Amino acid sequence: MRIDKSKCAGCGQCIEYCTIGNISACRRDAKTGQLYYEIDEDECVDCGVCLRAKVCETGALFMPKYQWPRTIRANFSDPLVEHPETGVAGRGTEEMKTNEVTGRIKRGFVGIACEMGRPAVGARFRDTQKVAMALAKLGVEFEPHNPCTTLMADPKTGRFKEEVLNEKVLSTIIEMIVETDKAPEVLKTIRQVASELDCVFSVDLISHVNKDGSVAGKSIVDSIGWPVAPNGKLNTGLGRPLAREV
Amino acid sequence: MTHTLHRRGTPANLAHDFPMHSIPARGFNNEGCKPKLQGFLRVAQKYNPVNLGESKLGNKFVRDIQDMYDHLSTITHAVLTDPDDVTELLKDMKQEDFGMSLTLSGLLETLFACCKKADITPHVIEYSLGVQGRTEKLPETEISQVTTMCGHAMISQGLVRRMIRKIKTGEMTPWEGAVELTKQCQCGICNPVRAAELLEECCALYAVNVA
User: Fold this and answer.
1) ipTM above 0.85, yes or no
2) pLDDT digits (tens, 9 = 90+) for B145-194
3) How many angstroms separate the CA of residue A153 from the nearest CA in chain B?
4) Where do the domains of chain A lie?
5) Which ranges in A31-140 belong to alpha helices (H)?
6) Quick one: pLDDT at residue A211?
7) Which of B112, B157, B186 sits opposite A120 (nearest CB)?
8) What is the pLDDT of residue A80?
9) φ and ψ at residue A105, rounded to 5 degrees
10) Domains (range + CATH), chain B
11) Which residues of A touch B26 (CB under 8 A)?
């Protein structure tokens, strides 16, 4: 996102819409004495929220026609942009939402995701790569349909394409399905690598609900002393047709 | 796209917050899904939703509901506040058997109880394991409880602060502030009732300068 200095009235109405905090500075033109705002484009994730708010009465705010790799910022940050790799608006896949139909996560497995940059801090792919590479050493396979995986130069090592490493996005999701037995090791690795990052990330664990109401995933997090939020998400299993193995 | 999973809050202020969505599975049952999504929206409207929305069309505060109903094509959202309403909605959805996946978020203990009353056994569960990394970069907890009601982070911390200022200076009510914030969340998963309550609580914690 950019502000046309010659049109900006310096009112500052747009800056509070910034999803990752205030990344703009108020400046004064040395020649005209006019106040104007300038966006730090290296920090901006191109989410488009300030523009959609339609608070700029002078039309100074605009989204330039960026070129690759800058274009991935909007793809990962603006939920209204349908991601070219998945056909889904947003950053992830349907993950557990349609699992009873897709059979994506089978019994004996759990889904784990690291939502890099969430909530509302943003993440550069340099940091995302650190997490992915730590997990790849455990032999984890990343979800091939997730747009984050498509930016990897080598999904086997978790290494990303060199040109995307400095790109910053509102969030990108490292998504994987692992055998239940392997989950504690994966989660411990996630916790260890977290201290090496310059961003935040939210962690998800998806697990089947057994007929007796027990959940394997809960035993896993309890066994490694990882606290679970009291709120979460349930797939009610009402989708049809049912996958062969649910 | 776990946009309803990581709402921050306390068990007390999450007790009346149940975002949910009906979603077709791409490549499996998305062909001809429109009447099924419309069916969900119709059922949801019976149970006092405080928000409704569709990812591409917007939420009920920026889009006419009939217009939304006529143009549904993808993941459709509703937010309820009463566990009894959630239970009754589940019973209806089971009976209607639209065949679209239905996902519920909220306090897990309450959701399991609702499912049990509706004679539904959940298929899978997703746990929120919290935030890792440089957590000092996050906004204060009180602000985060509001902003995380849009999992896509379209509700900015700056706008929450602006609403607090406006409420404290008498320019708007907590409800008006909550609606302004809710408009930003395109999908329609922000709970404006909870947002108003949280904003009111924030007003007691934040100071503003009045000229």
Assistant:
1) yes
2) 999 999 999 999 999 999 999 999 999 999 999 999 999 999 999 999 99
3) 23
4) 1-65, 83-223
5) 49-52, 71-77, 99-102, 125-136
6) 85
7) B157
8) 81
9) -105, 115
10) 18-117 (3.30.70), 135-205 (no CATH)
11) 87-88, 94, 98
From the list A89, A90, A204, the residue facing B127 with the nearest CB is A204
Rounded distance, CA A232 to CA B128, Å?
6
Nearest CA in chain A to B92: A238
| Tokens representing residue A112 in the block | 């784990």
CB B71 within 8 A of CB A217: no
Residue B102 to residue A236, Cβ atoms within 8 A: yes
The pLDDT tens digits of the residues spanning A130-156 come to: 999 999 999 999 999 899 999 999 999
Class of domain A1-65: alpha beta
- Phi and psi at A145, nearest 5°, equal -90, -5
Chain B CB contacts of A21 below 8 Å: 139, 156-158
- Answer yes or no: do A235 and B122 touch at CB < 8 A: yes
**For residues B79 and B33, is the Cβ–Cβ distance under 8 A?**
no
Tell whether the model's pLDDT for residue B207 goes beyond 70: yes
Give how far B93 is from chain A: nearest CA, Å.
Answer: 8
